[in-house]
Design goal:
By secondary structure, the chain is of the alpha+beta class. Helix content is 35%, strand content 26%.
């Protein structure tokens, strides 16, 4: 129950503030409460903090604008990838904030997240969830990153389901060979990926105020090295639900 309590405190804070979308920092904190691995990050409020956090995490890092009013960060120039020095981190902080303010002058800027980049990845996948008014929670799995809109390669399952269904869900996408060592490449940690999917299913059962959730990308590393959520988005229902 501790995971539920921690997650609900994050959700209630957002709803109390009149928000129906969690920030990336909040979304990852919610996932962490359920034991889902996410990229290490820190929230910077000035250029010096950005450089310090980047140095402590280790290069390369990614930097993203954090605002409760900006859901799609890349649309406002709010994402910088492959930042490799303190100087680059300081410039990236200034540019990210400036572009976000230019695009959305009314937006509340909470800072810039500085987070590790996962460099050893076999495949990037998406794990999503949506609360259907008839069927309840539905889980989506497919190729993630830049391939989501291009390939439209995904599978769906209605919660609840067991480990055999998770295996079938993973195996039925066209991109499955990428996860098991396509043309001599390293196989991915499919067991850790399956654990992420099963945990998201449990989370959706536990937390009825979550109406939609997207983990994209989930970086699936070589076998035995885990699967890590690099970006997350959580949408809430403001209606009073227990």
């Amino acid at each position: 129950m501790r995971a539920v309590e921690q997650a609900m405190s994050i959700i209630e804070k957002a709803l109390t503030e009149g928000r129906v979308a969690l920030t990336e920092v909040e979304s990852k904190a919610l996932l962490a409460a359920y034991g889902i691995p996410t990229t290490r990050l820190g929230l910077a409020n000035n250029v010096d903090e950005a450089a310090e956090i980047a140095r402590s995490i280790g290069y390369p890092v990614a930097m993203k604008i954090i605002s409760p009013d900006i859901l799609h960060k890349s649309d406002v120039g709010g994402v910088r990838l492959d930042v490799r020095s303190e100087e680059e981190a300081m410039v990236a902080y200034e540019e990210t904030v400036a572009l976000a303010r230019q695009a959305r002058p009314e937006a509340r800027i909470e800072g810039v997240s500085v987070q590790e980049m996962i460099v050893e990845t076999v495949a990037e996948v998406i794990v999503g969830a949506k609360r259907d008014p008839v069927f309840g929670p539905v889980i989506l799995f497919g190729l993630g990153g830049v391939w989501v809109d291009l390939m439209r390669d995904f599978s769906l399952r209605v919660v609840p389901f067991d480990q055999m269904e998770i295996a079938a869900m993973v195996e039925e996408i066209k991109g499955y060979p990428l996860l098991v060592g396509y043309r001599g490449s390293e196989p991915a940690d499919v067991a850790s990926l399956a654990n992420v999917i099963s945990t998201i299913a449990r989370l959706m059962e536990d937390l009825p105020r979550i109406v939609e959730l997207d983990l994209n990308p989930v970086c699936v590393r070589p076998d035995g090295r885990g699967a890590i959520v690099a970006d997350a988005r959580v949408l809430l229902d403001s209606a009073n639900k227990s």
